[in-house]
Structures are given as structure tokens and as C-alpha cells.
Amino acid sequence: MKKWFILVCTSFLILLSLSACNQNKIQNLKLAEVTHSIFYAPLYVAMEEGFFKEEGLDVELTTTWGGDKTMTALLSDGADIALVGSETSIYVEAQGSKDPVINFAQLTQTDGTFLVSREKMDNFEWDQLEGRTFLGQRKGGMPQMVGEFVLKQNGIDPTNDLELIQNIDFANIPSAFASGNGDYVQLFEPTASIFEKEGTGYIVASFGTESGHVPYTTFMAKESFLKENDEAAKKFTAAIYKAQQWVEENEVSKIAQSIAPQFEDTEIELIETVVARYKEQGSFSTDPILEEEEWNNLQNIMDEAGELPTRIDYDTLVNTTYAKDVMKK
């Protein structure tokens, strides 16, 4: 009887130990980001503040430098999750994908670019672009589509009212402007603020403020991955939501200090300037839900730019289940 009791107790302890190991098991996820930018501050907060680890996730981050390369990494299983503009999922779906790319958590909700003028202007008006040279972004990319949309919203025809230059590689646009090309340029941060600090150019308008809410960068994954990794996707979304709330609730200086390790070559004062600018204009989503109105606004912008292959229903490529579940808690 005594031996039997000892055997039962030993078996119970082994099962308990195995159960604890399973609960503490860390799941690895490969995340590809389209670029490495302060614009994605909540993501880096999730990493630096340990929110992914709290959810039992080890996230391996890779910068893939470009929407096409990011989507290629996702489709070829080089990444489990991609952080990229939602327009890329529409392009993939329009090509007849058998495994749709699903937007399941939103990170930024406005465009992240700014209009920079070579001359300092105290009272900028959009009609001042008429007859001038404008260095835009890559044709077909979200920044360029938003840029053209905003110009048209303000009565400027990008084709006829100014000289629009689009044939410069993304990485070379700032240097082209700095070397004397163009009267205006569309730039991301922190380059826009660096130019302003150096006197190379001056921020006169925000494309994010002008264009309204759009799913500018979202976390997405193949439908098959989400079905097979439902719990991991939910945990990932929970970590992002924690970070979004943390960014919303904390001061700019604290946010900058948190993400500073991600930008070792950038002065903390500049990080603060950029975080403040994006936070003030509401670029950081405060929750991971991609709203239907935002989805429709995105397709309207693509359509206006002549880049929308076909309209895709919201429910086809957007899944808010994880976001709504984690927000309930």
C-alpha cells in the first residue's frame, strides 16, 4: 500500500512538473518589419518593456526594407508575421492568393510623412506648391498615394500643377533634396526633423494630419498561420495592446528612453522630438483594432491614385477577433 501511494504521488509530481513546463514554454515568432522607424514606437516598447516575454513569446525582429521584400518574406515563410502597409495585402489578394494575408492588429493609423520646404514659411498654403518641383515617394507605395491624395484634396493636380519627381530610390530621396534637387520633399521622421535642425529644410505640413485615419502599418499573417497558431496570434496582439496603452499613458521622455536602445545612433533629444510629433497628431494607434472606415479610406486613397486593383471587402482581409478579445480583458 505504501509503495502504491509513493508511486501515485511521484506520478502526480511528474505530471505537475510537465504541465508547468508547458505553461512556461516560450514560443518563437519571426517578425519582419518594412523599415526600422520611430514611427513604430509601440512595437519597440513591447520589446523593451518585456510585454512579449510576459505573454510567453520570443519575437525575432528583422528589417526587410521595402513592402515588396516584406511581403515576399511572409509568403515564403521567411517570417511568421509582417509589419507593413495594408495595401500590400490587397495587392496579394487581387492576384488570386489561395492563402490570404490577414490584417489582425493595427500599429499606426495615419501617414507618417511630412512636407518639407527648402524655404522657411510661417504661413504655408498648399497652392504655394504650384509650379514648383516636388520630390515624392515611390509610385504605388502608400506614402506616394497619400501624398497625391492630399495634394488633390487641396486643389493641386500632381500631374499638371507641379513637377512631380518619383524616380529616386526611397533611400536616396533625402540626399537628393539635400544636394539641391526640388523645392519640396515628402519625408519620414527623423529625417524631416534632422533637416529642420540643420537648416536644410523646414516642415510645413503633415500628410498624416491631412489624410485622416488609414491602416498605414498593420501586423499581418497568412490565414493558414493564424489557424495553426491561434493562441500565439492572440498573445502577440495582447503584447501590442499593452504597449499601445503604455505609450498612450506615458510622457514623451519616458517613451523615448524606452525605445532608445533600438536607435543607438540617434540622439535622445531627437527621439523625443519625433515621438512627440507622432503622438500629438495621433499616429500611434491606441488599440489594435483596424476599423472598417479606415479600411475604406485606404481603398479610396488607392483608387484616387489609380493603384487599386479591385475593391476587397473588409471582412475578407481583416480579422479583429484577437484585438477585441485582448481588449475585453
From TrEMBL:
Question: What is one GO cellular-component annotation here?
Answer: periplasmic space
Localization recorded for this chain is: Periplasm
Task: Show the SUPFAM superfamilies listed in the entry.
Answer: Periplasmic binding protein-like II
Q: Which Pfam families match?
A: NMT1_2
Q: Which UniProt keywords apply?
A: Signal
This protein's source sits in the domain of life called: Bacteria
Transmembrane intervals: none
The signal sequence is: 1-22
- The residue stretches assigned to a coiled coil in this entry are none
Q: Which family does it belong to?
A: Belongs to the bacterial solute-binding protein SsuA/TauA family.
Name of this protein: SsuA/THI5-like domain-containing protein
Organism, as annotated: Bacillus weihaiensis
